[in-house]
Amino acid sequence: MSSFTDYKIDADIQKAIVDMGFTQPSEIQAQALPILLDYQGDFVGQAQTGTGKTAAYGIPLVQKINKNAQGVQAIILSPTRELAVQISEELIKISKYKRLKVLAVYGGQNIGVQLRALKQGVHIVVGTPGRVVDHLHRQSLNLGQIQNFILDEADEMLDMGFLEEIEEILSNVGKQRSIWLFSATLSNDIRRIANRFMTDPEEIRVQHKTATIANTEEIYYAVKEYNKFEALCRLIDHAPGMYAIIFCQTRNQTADIAEKLVAKGFKAEALHGDMNQSQREHVMGKFKKKGLTLLVATDVAARGIDINDLTHVINYSLPQESESYIHRIGRTGRAGKTGIAITLITPEEQYKLRRLEGNTRKKITKSRIPGIEEIMESYIDRTIGEFEAAIENPGGFDRYFSRWQPLVKKYTPEEITKGFVTLLSREILEKYEDDKELNAPDNFGQRSGFREKRTFSDNMVELSINVGQRDNLQTGTLIGKICNLAGVDGRQIGKVYIQDNQTQFKVDAEVADAVVRKLTGIKISGKTVTVEHADAKFRNLKKVMEKKFTGRRDSPDHFDKRKRFSK
Ligand code: ADP
Ligand code: MG
Q1: 451 in a domain, yes or no?
Q2: Mutate which of 4, 5, 18, 51 for ligand 1 pocket (most atoms within 8 A of beta carbon)
Q3: Do 59 and 94 meet the contact criterion of CB atoms below 8 Å apart?
Q4: Is 455 a member of any domain?
Q5: Lowest mean pLDDT segment, chosen from 62-66, 384-388, 393-397, 450-454
Q6: Residue range 75-107, pLDDT digits in tens
Q7: Which residues constitute the domain of residue 422?
Q8: Fewest CB within 10 A of the end CB: N or C in the chain?
């Protein structure tokens, strides 16, 4: 095991590292530090999320900066504003004693603040590609002195469609610079960037060492606390034949959730420490025989359970310790079968997830809570299968057929089908009063108590889609789709105007292209979505209006012009 003192890191930075509470370098740090601390060339580093890539380049970068030189010496590009803020905070901590000026620039923050700070001079700029391009166009950012160009979370940046911006920014940087690229994955697209812009990069790849079970798919959903129960019901109804333990934090919560699940018609029961031995054994026995398919339990109560062929493990809330997360999810995905581990997370808790990913060395994939239509589709597919199986194998119920016979004379096959479908579907639909959007907008990387106000970007673009009130579109549904599909932060979306046949909404200019690309062609309420820049529409409209006004003496435009000309 190495320690930070094994590396040629300046004393003031060593001191800052101690303050940050880092005692041992992570693997990517241990491998990257010796190279980057004394290096002028290009570099590619790959390691999973949560493995400390920021400090792996941050420490050598801070060390390299000449505090007394003029001009921005390093620029770091990052895919989202949250990450940009997070990176700049980490760099500020690393350079605490060296006292470097680090500035985060991103869409959504008033550009004036950024302009003033840039004027006063900064050593390191951390920015989202769109906003950096903006500053280049305004000539408020000069990249002539850049020595280090860092692409962080390069895979996400490409996923969000920032390639052009990256190219434009690079073309503004002189040739005397090193490019360092960090990414959780190295796709062919990233290789292509490396080949195109870098010269013989050194490459470090840290292999995944997973603490959790390889056969378990780990998924999380971002939902507000008050939507959690409904989200749980939808997930159960969406998955065919779920056989699961649902983990809760407290005894009261297990009892409460189990009771509510039963009320919704699920076969659920609680298992907690307040129950006596025989009660517990009774519940366990039922669960083993699958007379009960959902067991709602606390960590402690579940400890002695020897059931391992679960289809799902559900973390109704995030466990306090990574250890207990690993234990919980180890109950599924055994013996060559694939299991699914689901974790419900409130937006405020998302930063904890990254820590968990770091500890388990495995990525937990984000997914979205299905809407009622999707649940119905999967339910119908399942029931049709069961229906056909029942026709082929009536299993002793033949003796009741004669009682149904009159129906066959009275109705057509279509009518009979209709009746069955209604009867069967009602069971599902009655559980859900409305198809509200349960997916909470992302605020990854934000800490509670550190939340920014929802400020709309000063650089918004208006888009328009062909879905509206007539299609029952809800604002939440649309925002959820944009956030999840285009990887956009909720605060990058402005006002939404739902009209009869179409909807206008504003998004941060930085992500507009990604939104257009990701929304085009998807289905909302059965309609194939097309997206247009509303600005273009608006401009055309404005032209028509202007034409109408020409020649009219009382037009406000004319009035203005006259005034201006008379000066
Ligand atoms: P990545 O960029 O690889 O996803 P981050 O750089 O965001 O990971 O680091 C994840 C978390 O781990 C951060 O909270 C960071 O402060 C912390 N961290 C990084 N390096 C160390 C270390 N050597 N010791 C302890 N914590 C660390
Ligand atoms: Mg990172």
Answers
A1: no
A2: 51
A3: yes
A4: no
A5: 450-454
A6: 999 988 878 988 999 999 999 999 999 999 998
A7: 373-431
A8: C
